[in-house]
Amino acid sequence: MPFWDARNDFGNTTLIVAKPEEGASLARALGPNWIVLMRRHGATVAGTTLEELVFRTVYTARNAALQIEAHGLGHVSPLNAAETELAGEYNLRPGPVARAWEYWSVRLDKAEGTWRRPKARFSRRRFRGRELAGCGSSCPSAGRSTACSGRGGWINARTPSRPRAPRRATCATCTRFSATGTW
Question: Which domain does 172 fall in, by range?
Fold first, then answer.
C-alpha cells in the first residue's frame, strides 16, 4: 500500500490537500492503487462508483482494525497477489456492494428518523377461498382481470358463470423468485 507524505514535497502544510499541485502529488502516490495512506493524516480511497467507494472505505477501516487485533495474537500472514486479486473480484461484484449499500442506507435513514418500511412486494391474498402468495402484478397480455398467484402462472380473478381453467402465463418475477427458492 503506498504512503504519501505532504511534508516531503511541500514542507509544513495545513494537512489539507488544498492546492492543485498537492492534489497532483497525491494522485501520483496513489498510482494504480485504490488506497493511499497519508502520513500524519489518514487515507484517500478511490472507487469507480459512489457505492464502491463507500464499500472500500468501510471495509478498509474494518479490516485494518481486525489486522491490528490479529497482530496482538501472533504472526499474521498477508494475502499473496493472486488471493488479493481473487478476493477483490469476488467482493466487488454488484451483489455484495449493493447489499452493503442498502444496509448502510437504511441505517443512516433510521438514525436520521427518515426511514419508512418499504411496501411488501409479495402479498398474501385470498382467491376462491384459498390463500395465494404472489407479486400481485397484473398480466400484461390479459389485462386487469388477472393477478399473479406466484405458484404456476396467472389466475383469472373473474368469477365466470361456468367453471373454466385459470388462464396461465409466465410471471417473470415469480418464476425468478421461485427458481431461487424464495417461495
Answer: 123-179
